[in-house]
Specification:
Largest sheet of chain B: 6 strands, mixed
Helix content of chain A: 55-70%
Largest sheet of chain A: 2 strands, antiparallel
CATH topology of chain A: ABC transporter involved in vitamin B12 uptake, BtuC
CATH architecture of chain A: Orthogonal Bundle
CATH class of the largest domain in chain B: Alpha Beta
Oligomer: heterodimer
Radius of gyration of chain A: 24 Å
CATH architecture of the largest domain in chain B: 3-Layer(aba) Sandwich
Order of helices and strands of chain B: EEEHEEHEHHHEHEHEEHH
Strand content of chain A: 5-15%
Largest interface: A-B, 30 and 40 residues
Shape of chain B: globular
Shape of chain A: globular
Number of domains of chain B: 2
Number of helices of chain A: 17
CATH superfamily of the largest domain in chain B: P-loop containing nucleotide triphosphate hydrolases
Distance between the termini of chain B: 35 Å
Strand content of chain B: 15-25%
Order of helices and strands of chain A: HHHHHHHEEEEEHHHHEHHHHHH
């Protein structure tokens, strides 16, 4: 199917089903129940899941395949966002030209940064990319203010030209759309105690993510993908086999930069503003965490990692002390206070502590990330099956 | 006219004259061994031929074209493959993938973005890779993790990777270094078999006299960066200059 082998086609199908039914899957609890705060099925968060999924898929093409660890990928995300907002300001509120423009600009930017950074490998490469990203971040904050609007961030204004859109009559800011379908428009389905929201914006992001995922699967299984893995394995042999590693790594860098630009463009399409903090090194580190947490070099890993981290960031951080007291209300007062006191550092603003611990556990015990965890569980099931079979055979043997 | 002609090559590392006026001609379809004691400049010479080092003076022509100043991948694309002292393979990939990489390099040149074609649909390349594995008796290992194989099998795989590109010149840098006797003999047999089956020129750099005398048709003896004698194995065996170079004094 679609030029994929059976296994990959099934994987793509699973991701497609998950993405398209996410409003249901992520909303397992009724609105009124105490667990409703664990529901992640609201458009804003779901958009983040898939957008950062795209970001991580792209990052994985570079890091997972070639082993070059870029610490500056957020720069491309930021460049993508700025490009998209500029398109909204100058051309039209249609997201399509904005996305195309953000991918192109991020690609060009990646070409320049990659050309310089890829002269070195290993830690020096990481530091070079980090330096470039921090440079972009600081420039966006200071001297590039005419383009980036500095600390305030780039926003839409009523006076923007928007040459393709008909002149603005009303007094409110226009909204982003795809040929008339507004990104923020949503439909809510109330079913018994549940409430499911389907937003145009989310589905656009999900479909783009599926396309991005499909392309990355094709790339992984192509001769080009094989060359990238060969670079990770043995560059010396590659060179003496008649292949030049630089153009391959540069191509991988630009492709992953374009993925990041696409993600940035989508972020701006969902919410048309762009700030410099999107380029900060913490944002670059986040995508590294996502990829490693999910499983670097695997197809589905980065998407899982992105979902995992964004879930923690948005859901865990909302649990506060009073909610904890509610949960443990059935306990005697002293015990309740004690448990809340112990758990408190891990929730609310302390969510990153929980995430950090999870990350450490995954890296130490599951170096292949969440995907390896899944594989181990699958293997466990398979093994119990075969041992069952053995038990049967040993039982029948004496009878023979 | 030889397939490889080296003229007046000099290479200096600081105060050390690593290669002094090297002249060497390798005839097509021969197995030419370069021997000599440690520090004789054998490896330096080989590194000059594959683009790792650039000699200070001199010329090195392969099939009428200069190899000096070219990068390793360009030299490989000219038809020169090399085998390393310790087998250099893609340890993280499967055996089949290891062999497919040179297949693509041979067909597509040093760089091509074919990100949308599927590996498993490159029938020609797969056939070619499987054929060479069969040829070298490795067909049963095609899905193995290359890094987990024995040293002898890694060497065999490395040779498969070189041969699948149909090189005209194969450079072997101590192909049996660090191998057990049995593996060494296997490698000798393998190289003999390879030579018997195809038109290929081999240049072997080797310490092990057993290997040299079982394979070589011509032998060049080097000492202190300069070729001393070049002759057939029979004549080299009793040559006084060779004994002198190896034993350090007139024998």
């Amino acid at each position: 199917m679609l030029g994929l082998n059976r296994k990959d086609a099934i994987l793509l199908l699973i991701v497609a089903v998950l993405a398209l039914f996410a409003p249901f899957i992520l909303n397992p609890f009724p609105v009124d129940s105490a667990l409703a705060q664990f529901n992640a099925g609201y458009p804003d968060l779901m958009q983040r899941f898939v957008i950062f999924g795209i970001f991580a898929i792209g990052f994985n093409i570079l890091f997972g395949l070639t082993g070059y660890l870029s610490f500056g990928h957020a720069a491309f995300l930021g460049v993508g966002s700025y490009s998209a907002v500029w398109m909204f300001k100058l051309l039209s509120m249609n997201v399509l030209p904005a996305l195309v423009f953000s991918v192109v600009i991020a690609g060009l930017f990646a070409l320049v940064i990659g050309y310089v950074s890829l002269r070195r490998s290993g830690i020096y490469f990481s530091i070079l990319t980090l330096a470039f990203a921090q440079m972009s971040f600081n420039l966006a904050y200071s001297v590039l203010t005419p383009i980036t609007n500095g600390e305030t961030g780039l926003q839409l204004a009523l006076t923007d030209p928007r040459i393709l859109d008909s002149a603005q009559v009303g007094g409110s800011l226009p909204v982003t759309s795809l040929f008339g379908a507004e990104m923020r428009s949503a439909m809510t389905l109330d079913l018994a105690g549940w409430s499911f929201t389907f937003s145009v914006g989310y589905y656009l992001c999900a479909i783009i993510m599926l396309i991005a995922f499909y392309l990355s699967v094709r790339l992984f299984r192509s001769p080009f993908g094989l060359m990238l893995r060969a670079i990770k394995s043995n560059q010396q042999r590659l060179n003496y086999t008649g292949l030049e590693s630089r153009p391959y790594t540069l191509a991988a860098f630009v492709i992953s930069g374009m993925y990041a630009g696409l993600a940035g463009g989508l972020l701006a399409s969902m919410d048309p503003l762009a700030g410099a903090d999107r380029m900060q090194w913490t944002a670059s580190g986040e995508v590294v965490l996502m990829t490693i947490l999910g499983g670097a070099g695997t197809l589905i890993g980065p998407v899982l990692g992105a979902g995992f981290i964004k879930y923690f960031e948005n859901i865990f951080s909302k649990i506060n002390e009073s909610i904890l007291h509610q949960w443990f209300a059935f306990l005697p007062d002293g015990v309740q206070d004690f448990i809340v006191m112990i758990l408190y550092p891990f929730i609310g603003k302390g969510w990153s502590l929980t995430l950090g611990i999870m990350f450490m556990l995954v890296v130490i015990f599951l170096p292949g990330g969440l995907v390896e965890g899944g594989q181990r569980i699958a293997r466990l099931f398979r093994r119990t099956k075969t041992t069952d079979g053995d038990v049967v055979s040993t039982k029948t043997k004496p009878a023979e | 006219m030889g397939i490889l002609e080296i003229k007046n090559v000099n290479k200096r590392f600081g105060g050390l004259q690593a290669l002094g006026n090297v002249n060497l001609t390798v005839m097509e379809n021969t197995v030419h061994a370069i021997i000599g004691p440690n520090g004789a400049g054998k490896s330096t010479l080989l590194n000059c031929l594959v683009g790792k080092l650039l000699p200070d003076t001199g010329t090195a022509m392969f099939d009428g074209r200069s190899v000096l100043g070219k990068k390793p991948h360009q030299i490989n694309q000219m038809g020169i493959s090399r085998v390393f002292q310790t087998p250099e393979i893609f340890a993280d990939l499967s055996v089949l993938e290891n062999v497919m990489i040179p297949c693509f390099a041979h067909r597509d040149g040093s760089f091509k973005i074919n990100a949308m074609s599927s590996l498993m649909r490159e029938r020609d390349m797969l056939d070619k890779a499987e054929h060479i594995l069969e040829d070298l008796n490795m067909a049963d290992k095609r899905d193995m993790h290359a890094g987990s194989m024995s040293r002898g099998d890694k060497r065999r795989l490395e040779l498969a990777m070189c041969l699948v590109q149909e090189p005209r010149l194969l450079l072997l840098d101590e192909p049996t270094a660090g191998m057990a006797r049995a593996d060494t003999n296997n490698t000798i047999d393998l190289l003999k078999e390879i030579k018997a089956k195809r038109d290929i020129t081999m240049v072997i750099i080797e310490h092990d006299m057993h290997v040299v005398f079982s394979l070589a048709e011509r032998i060049t003896v080097m000492a202190q960066g300069t070729p001393l004698v070049e002759d057939t194995p029979d004549k080299i065996k009793g040559h006084p200059k060779v004994k002198e170079a190896y034993l350090g004094e007139a024998a």
